[in-house]
Amino acid sequence: MRYSLILIIIGLLVLTSIERFVGFNAEVSDKEIDSRAVSILRGTITHVRDGDTFEVQGTPVRISALDCPENSTSSGQKATRFTQQFKGKQAVCELTGAKTYDRVVGYCSIEGKDFAQIMIDNKLCKFWPKYDVWNRY
Predict the structure, then answer these.
(1) Whole-angstrom distance, CA of residue 131 vs CA of residue 53
(2) In the structure, what pLDDT confidence band is assigned to residue 30 with cuts at 50, 70 and 90?
(3) Distance between CA 125 and CA 103 in Å, rounded?
(4) Around Cβ 63, how many Cβ atoms within 10 Å?
(5) Contact 118/56 with Cβ under 8 angstroms?
(6) How far apart are CA 61 and CA 47, in angstroms?
(7) Which of 9-18, 49-58, 108-117 has the lowest mean pLDDT?
(8) Per-residue DSSP letters for the chain?
(9) Which of 28, 52, 92, 111 is positioned for an S-S bond with 68, CB 3.0–4.6 A?
């Protein structure tokens, strides 16, 4: 009887662990990935360069369709400070295949939320239709 009770408890713990694992993966998988993406970059934001460029696992990503003020301006510094809050968070970047300077270009979401939309909603940057290659905005 005692062994049966122990086995039931162990089984419940295993089921709880599996449920947490499956729930965690659902959160990480975000929305459906755009089929036009050349590749997907997933990982932790390790460095913020400015309002429209950060590094994911050390890879610099320029956010497609986002136009933020330059760091040499007070508005640019404000956008960069705001973006700093995302350092250490998980990002999923759908890369377009383009490169600019030393950066790959992509549409990124952080914890399931579109990063460019966050910056626009907070009035820190604007959309740059010329570089919205997938017409998302």
Answers:
(1) 14
(2) very low
(3) 19
(4) 25
(5) no
(6) 10
(7) 9-18
(8) -HHHHHHHHHHHHHHHHHHHHHHHHHHHT-SPPPTT-SEEEEEEEEEEEETTEEEETTEEEEETTEE---TTSHHHHHHHHHHHTTTTSEEEEEEEEEEETTEEEEEEEETTEEHHHHHHHTTS-EE-GGG-TT---
(9) 52
**CA-wise closest residue to 96 among 56, 47, 135:** 135
User: pTM of the entire structure?
Assistant: 0.75
* Residue at token pair 């049966």: 4
Residue 44 token pair: 């932790």
Residue keyed to tokens 């999923």? 92
- What's the CATH number for 33-131? 2.40.50.90
In terms of Cβ atoms closer than 10 Å to its own Cβ (0-12, 13-18, 19+), residue 66 is: buried
- pLDDT score for 33: 86
To which residue do tokens 């089929």 refer?
A: 35
Report the distance separating Cα 8 and Cα 36, nearest Å.
48
The SS3 assignment for 122 reads coil
